[in-house]
Write a structure and sequence with these properties.
single chain; alpha/beta; 4-stranded mixed beta sheet; about 30% strand
């Protein structure tokens, strides 16, 4: 498994790199279908945020992508939490796939979404009245039924998932509701 560790607003020291490598490599022992792992360590420079040290890990698998993110006030604690979360997600992935990996799909064919930040932290601190789009993300849609989309969303650890509904052939959005269930937003073309 190739492991890429990078920092954002933080210097990745040798001890921090070794710790992250040790914890994330441990996940590879549970599943041999991991192609690579990308680890991003980030410190949010905003005094109003309590848990300002985040760790985001993206595992590219043969047959899917698993993403986990955790935030704490201590980078080492965040790494521990994200490693535990990845172990649970890999266990769930193995149960869903019967311990086998779907080799017909590639990691690049899986829809990946990242949270979009509408306002930069500097703008937030200045309490600017103007909001602007600071990131634009494009991706290709793949046909899925809503249950497959729910599975992909859980594997990525996101709150929503955009996909092409294989039943209606339209763009749909699956999301987590506050009551713990899923919601489905379906686009309808005007005639």
């Amino acid at each position: 498994m190739d492991l890429i560790i990078k920092g954002k607003n933080v210097e990745v020291t040798e001890s921090l790199r070794d710790y992250a490598q040790q914890k994330i490599s441990r996940v590879g022992k549970y599943f041999d279908g991991i192609i690579d792992a990308q680890v991003e360590l980030n410190v949010i420079k905003n005094k109003r945020v309590a848990n300002n040290q985040t760790v985001q890990v993206t595992l590219h698998l043969r047959g899917g992508v698993i993403r986990a993110e955790e935030a704490k006030d201590n980078m080492y604690a965040a790494i521990d939490l994200v490693a535990d979360k990845l172990e649970r997600q890999i266990s769930r992935f193995k149960q869903t796939h019967g311990g086998k990996v779907d080799r017909t799909r590639t990691a690049s064919g899986v829809l990946e979404l990242e949270p979009v930040s509408i306002v930069s932290p500097e703008d937030f601190e200045q309490e600017s009245e103007t909001q602007q789009i600071v990131r634009n993300k494009t991706f290709s849609l793949k046909p899925l039924d809503p249950s497959e989309a729910a599975h992909e969303m859980e594997m990525l650890g996101h709150d929503f998932y955009v996909f092409q509904n294989s039943q209606t052939n339209e763009v749909s959005v699956l999301y987590h509701r506050r009551d713990g269930h899923y919601g489905l937003i379906e686009a309808v073309r005007n005639a």
